[in-house]
User: Which sequence fits this backbone?
């Protein structure tokens, strides 16, 4: 995958991967948000099961 | 020397200054990580054996979740809201997560290191709440509250009162160089709001309201943790000064300062706090907390104080915190590590002390420092922390997501949620009932 926004270091400024592709940056940003929120949601499910197990004496 | 050589020399000096600035904030950030090492040890030590690892996991995850969320919206809030609740769109653009400055950029050496230092301030703010709520809060609820506090609430306070163009400074002359208000008060009062809804640990109060002791499993671990927090605060306070290449240091308000002034006053405040807490409690846990409270109490005017004044302010901080915690207990509020008293009350002393003892110092923009300005600033910071902490924890409580069930609390959160044990080899075999035959010795 060619993710480089530059072809030469001469005059390079923002050079991070996909810096010239706003749509890709927004997609990666949204995926990061999804992971962050998703893990908290998964944590809630884990807690629910764990607490139920303790209530049942397991 | 030719004009061209002069130009080259000037360019070299400028680049050297830029790189030195990066190096300075890089190491402040690295030292601040020690605050989290300290919080980890401190909270695990303050937990009973059955909750040791759950407290550690909570602490580690707070750090981990604040980092991305501060990238997502924290830096944007700081740049965009110095005027209050109205957004400065042009300034905020620098903090949009997909902007050119929010990643490797050869023409911007500053944003990354400043973002990192602010992220560590943010994680510190969230971790302040962490110790108070141990042994009964749900991990998921805690993380929602930690992200709200660390990546949104305090940084809004910082935009208002810890920014060269923040409205508190421009309109009231608010001065809070070492962030006693914007970090510690906000975190302390947010924690107070959460504690009201969370309730005390089972067994903390007798039916008549008497406070019963709940002792953590390792006071030495807590003491080492507190000392590590102090080490980390040298990075924190160091990160509160602005490095200007080729010129004198300035505070966040652009007033001239020296790192030497910070060195005098952080040490004197620290010492005063320990001595004050020793006088009142004789308890090493409170002595180390007093050292932290002493630094916080001296922090707002750390650039201005005569060092013995910082010592005395720190001493008052160390004296007051144990009484503040006792006052909280009278209302049946269970703050497991004294976070509200150390940070909320210590921060309040810090903000008001500048008004009392450093009135009349000029600002670059806005009126001079005054007691009235500091008083209003303190009220704003208290409200900014308390209101969202109280309301969001109330919401979580109302939908049953704030607190673990009583059975899980009594069994211990390690056995409920954590797949490993804190001290697996030191837990002995099940007790032999009196009079029963001994099992045969193996091997």
Assistant:
């Amino acid at each position: 995958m060619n993710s480089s926004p530059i072809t030469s270091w001469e005059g390079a400024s923002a050079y991070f991967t996909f810096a010239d592709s706003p749509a890709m940056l927004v997609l990666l940003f949204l995926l990061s948000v999804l992971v962050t929120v998703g893990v908290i949601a998964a944590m809630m499910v884990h807690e629910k099961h764990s607490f139920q197990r303790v209530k049942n004496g397991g | 020397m030719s004009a061209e050589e002069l130009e080259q020399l000037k360019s070299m000096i400028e680049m050297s200054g830029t790189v030195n600035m990066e190096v300075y904030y890089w190491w402040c950030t690295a030292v601040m990580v020690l605050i989290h090492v300290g919080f980890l040890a401190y909270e695990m030590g303050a937990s009973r054996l059955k909750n040791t690892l759950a407290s550690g996991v909570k602490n580690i995850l707070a750090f981990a979740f604040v980092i991305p969320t501060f990238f997502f919206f924290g830096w944007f809030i700081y740049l965009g809201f110095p005027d209050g609740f109205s957004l400065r769109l042009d300034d905020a653009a620098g903090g949009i997560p997909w902007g050119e400055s929010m990643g490797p950029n050869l023409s911007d050496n500053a944003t990354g290191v400043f973002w990192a230092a602010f992220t560590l301030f943010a994680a510190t703010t969230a971790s302040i709440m962490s110790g108070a709520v141990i042994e009964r809060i749900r991990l998921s609820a805690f993380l929602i509250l930690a992200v709200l506090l660390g990546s949104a609430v305090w940084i809004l306070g910082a935009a208002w009162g810890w920014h060269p163009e923040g409205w508190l400074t421009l309109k009231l002359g608010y001065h809070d160089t070492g962030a006693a208000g914007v970090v510690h008060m906000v975190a302390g009062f947010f924690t107070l709001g959460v504690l009201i809804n969370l309730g005390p640990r089972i067994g903390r109060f007798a039916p008549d309201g008497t406070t019963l002791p709940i002792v953590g499993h390792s006071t030495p671990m807590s003491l080492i943790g507190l000392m590590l927090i102090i080490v980390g605060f040298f990075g924190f306070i160091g990160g509160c000064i602005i490095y200007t290449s080729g010129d004198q240091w300035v505070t966040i308000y652009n007033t001239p300062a020296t790192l030497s002034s910070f060195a005098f006053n952080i040490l004197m405040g620290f010492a005063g706090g320990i001595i004050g807490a020793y006088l009142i409690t004789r308890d090493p846990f409170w002595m180390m907390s007093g050292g932290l409270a002493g630094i916080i109490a001296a922090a707002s005017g750390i650039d201005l104080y005569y060092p013995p004044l910082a010592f005395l302010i720190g001493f008052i901080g160390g004296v007051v915190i144990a009484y503040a915690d006792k006052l909280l207990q009278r209302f049946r509020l269970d703050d497991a590590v004294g976070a509200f008293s150390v940070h909320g009350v210590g921060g309040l002393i810090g903000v008001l002390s500048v008004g009392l003892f450093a009135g009349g110092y000029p600002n670059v923009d806005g009126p001079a420092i005054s007691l009235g300005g500091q008083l209003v600033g303190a009220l704003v910071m208290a409200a900014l922390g308390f209101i969202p902490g109280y309301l969001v924890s109330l919401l979580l409580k109302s939908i049953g997501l704030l607190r673990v069930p009583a059975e899980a609390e009594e069994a211990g959160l390690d056995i409920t949620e954590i797949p490993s044990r804190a001290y697996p080899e030191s837990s002995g075999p099940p007790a032999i009932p009196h009079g029963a035959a001994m099992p045969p010795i193996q091997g």
